[in-house]
Amino acid sequence: MTAGERFVEVPEGLDGERLDAALARMFGLSRATAATLISEGNVLVEGHPAAKSDRVLAGVSLTVTLPAPPGAVEVAAQPVPGMTLVYEDEDIVVIDKPRGVAAHPTPGWTGPTVIGGLMAAGVMIATSGAAERQGIVHRLDANTTGLMAVAKSELAYSVLKQAFRDRAVSKTYHCLVQGHPDPLRGTIDAPIGRHPSGDGRFAVVVGGRPSVTHYDTLEAFRAASLVTVGLETGRTHQIRVHMSALRHPCCGDLLYGADPALSARLGLTRQWLHAIRLSFAHPTRGYEVSFESGYPEDLQHSLDILRAES
User: Fold this and answer.
1) Each residue of 72-95: pLDDT tens digit?
2) In sequence order, what are the residues at sequence separation of 6 or more whose Cβ sits closer than 8 angstroms to the Cβ of residue 230?
3) Residue 198 CB neighbour total at 10 angstroms
């Protein structure tokens, strides 16, 4: 159960129940927790305080303020330099995310977030989802740049989450990988799960979640190749894991086996991975919307070095 204020009506099946019992049933709480919420004034019946022993009638409105769950991460408004709004309407906002920005707060992350940046910019987003990642329908790694959509309306959140589950969203990435993939184009169909080491990495593992990545070489250099990547699934670190499994890790991606010497020569301090195109059916208007993003300065600089050498 996520924190925040909830507005609900008592269902027919709880007509005549004690308030604490009804609250416990509706929100999956213990009776003791429900009683505490009531005694602390966090439950209003038709806008008025009530006692835990009061009987409730079907159809009456409850205003319930739920506490944050243990370990919840607070979302703080924080301007994000370099984060641009590519598109915005009443239902969605599409941003071009810079490096070093997480999609939403997580335990241990103290840097900027997309959610905090949107809050600081005055962009109201959907309240659906866990409190710390409301409106988030898909994510990019903190050091992966490019296009990301966030839901502003509740309907958009529901429709877009389903579209991602149904693989009805087209996501295209460009990735600079070490060496030359053989074949130059192909599909990687390999399950991904947490790395056995437990160090936070992911890996191709037996029993992992099904994961499918399509790649095609765009440009070959002496030491690396620029590839375009399409995803059927959206697992954590999917492109980075799959390209590493092919023994062609993303340049600069030291976590997944990139050559430190090549990374340094190219001036890379993060993985060369950019979400360049994003297309989907608008969640309320129905027509296709498509967005593109140019390479950020550090990735373009690496390409310039390789082209000059080739």
Assistant:
1) 556 678 899 999 999 999 999 999
2) 170, 171, 172, 173, 213, 214, 215
3) 7
Helix or strand (DSSP H, E) at 8: strand 4-9
Q: Which residues contact 242 (CB under 8 A, 6 or more apart)?
A: 188, 190, 192, 204, 211, 213
Q: Supply the pTM of this predicted model.
A: 0.77
For 183, residues 6+ apart whose C-beta sits below 8 A from its C-beta are none
Beta strand 192-194 pairing with 202-204: antiparallel
Q: How is residue 173 annotated by DSSP?
A: E
DSSP 3-state of 116 = helix
Give catalytic residues, as residue numbers: 141
Residue ranges and CATH numbers for the domains of the chain are 4-66 (3.10.290.10), 69-166 (3.30.2350.10), 168-310 (3.30.2350.10)
**Identity of residue 1:** M
Cα pseudo-dihedral 215, 94, 241, 211, rounded to 10: -70
User: How does 261-295 read in b/e, with b if 16+ C-beta sit within 10 Å?
Assistant: ebbeebebebbbbbbbbbebeebeeeeebebebeb
Which residues are CB-contacts of 153 (< 8 A; sequence separation ≥ 6)?
90, 91, 92, 126, 283, 284
Closest CA to 210 of 183, 231, 182: 231
C-beta of residue 95 within 8 angstroms of C-beta of residue 83: yes
Q: What is the pLDDT of residue 2?
A: 47
Query: Per residue in 128-159, is it b (16+ CB within 10 Å) or e — as a string?
Result: bbebbbbbbbbbbbbbbbbbbbbbbbeebbeb
Low-confidence winner among 30-34, 111-115, 254-258 (lowest mean pLDDT)? 30-34
